[in-house]
Each structure stands twice: as structure tokens, then as C-alpha cells.
Amino acid sequence: MSGFAGGPVLLLVNPTAGRGRGLRLLPRAVRALEAAGFTATVSVTDSLDQATERTRAAARGSLVAVLGGDGFLGAAAAGAAESGAVLLPLAGGRGNDTIRRLGLDLDPAKAIGRINGLAVRELDLGLVDGRAYLGVANVGFDGLANEYGNSARMNLGPFTYLYGGLKALVLWRNVRFTLTVDGRSSTFPGWFIAVGNVGQYGGGLRICPEAKADDGLLDVVSLGRATALGVALTFLRSYRGSHLRQANIGSLRGRTVEISANKPLNIYADGEMAGPLPATIRIGTRAVGVLAPADSPAFGRTRTTGFEADPAVA
Description:
- This protein is an alpha+beta fold.
- The protein contains eight helices and 16 strands.
- The strands form two sheets. Strands 1, 2, 3, 4, 5, 6, 8, 9, 13 and 16 form a ten-stranded mixed sheet that branches. The chain has a six-stranded antiparallel sheet with strand order 12-11-10-7-14-15.
- It starts with 6 loop residues before the first strand and ends in a 21-residue tail after the last strand.
């Protein structure tokens, strides 16, 4: 079903993802590829930029397996959007949220073993001031949570974000955002703004639960006035995606999102710092091909056979 019946594959590995999880899983991933009839060329990368460079240099229509976390996968997608290579995402990070939302197995060897049941899907690509991401761009309280989560001494896996969020609660004070979506602006006191493509982050937080990764739109979810307890409940509800029913939650869709704030804040993309505010987020429509289950919940449209990078990406 995938159209890949063995042959050459480039296997990109992030050695630092998941505190070395990618490297630990590498031998099993190589054996699984060999068992499926593939010949793997392994590339252990030094940086996210190198992941982009390697996929940019890949042949159009070739298969690139990406073993790392969400940020690493987004970096590889940036290069694939230019080269036309097809990505096989493999879970090598801590949260692996894009892989979870795509419906792929969290065991890389099992995901490879089921490759014949996957289909090439066309995935939109988010762009934060030109920096590509697949899952969620976020700014605000959750950005601080991301910083604290990443600095945690223990490997907390999917609970990393929850730990960071609890620690950040005590430091968030008097922030006002200005949010502009496709030219419509509003200014409000709040806790966070999340701009979703696949729409999941933080080890299972469905912060933009209605996002579809192939609709050409960004889902924008924001939290306004709330108590510390209210913030905590919002994030707990987001595991089920039920937080959108709250009165203090804003939800919009658009192709261009601009964010600024009255205090210095950094914006993150798939867990990686993208830079300081102000920031502009755009969408590259049907920019990159990925292997995913045909019934993946991340997609809304029927699968098409070809894909072409959007001019905003290429």
C-alpha cells in the first residue's frame, strides 16, 4: 500500500533525542528495515540543521526514515518539502506527539514492520518566521513549561510537560497578547497561544483537538483569564481535547497568524525554541509526504497520489 517494497532508505538519527533513546533503538530499527527488504544508510546527525540538509539532498520520491523527537522530525520535514522525499517518522524522542497523532506505532521496529499497511499522505507544514514545524507552535505559559520540562534532570517521558507546567504556574504574571489571524486582531490578558497543524504536543496534550494536518489552515487556541487551578484543569482537559468548551478558551482558524506580547517571550515549535516575539506563523499546504495509516485521525481529506511543495515553503 505504501509503494515502498524494500530498496534503499536513508535513516536519520538524532543521538540526543529522548536522552539517547534514538541511539538505543537504532540497532533494532536497522534490523527491522533489513527484515522488510530495505538497505539502510544510517546518518547520525549533529544538529537539526543537518537533518534538514540531509533530507533536502535526498532524491524525490525516495524514502527517509526519521528516528528522533518532534523537533527533529520537523527539521527533516523542512528539507523533504524541498526535495520531495517521503518521510517515515519513527519514535525516538520523549513525547513523540506527531507520531502519536498520525497513528503510527511508538515502537520503531513495529512501525517499520507495518510499512506495507501505510499510505503516502500529504502533510501541511507550519512555518514560524520561516522555521518549519509539524505539530504545534506555542508561546506563553506553556513555553516556560517547555523550558522547565526540557531542563528536568529525570527522564519523565510523557509527563515531562506536566512537570514543567506545574513549575511554571508560579511565575506567570500580567501578560497581554496581541493576536492577529488573517488580518483580524485582538488584545487580551492570557496564559498561552497555541498554533496547531497536527495539533498535539507535550506528550499527549491535544491542545488543538480539531486540527487537521491537510486542510491548509492553522488552528489557533488561546487561554484568557484564569486562576492557577483553572490553568491546570485546562491542560488536564486537553488530554481529551475537551477544553474547547471552556468560556475562557478562544479558538480560530486561518492561514497567517501574528503574535506579540507586552513582555519578552519566546515562541516554540515542536518543542524547539523558534525565537522571540513578535512572530508570524504561516502554513505551507500539502508540503511534505509522510507514511501514515490510511485512516489516520490527523487527516481530513482523502489521500491523493502526488504532492508538491507550496511556494511559501519551497
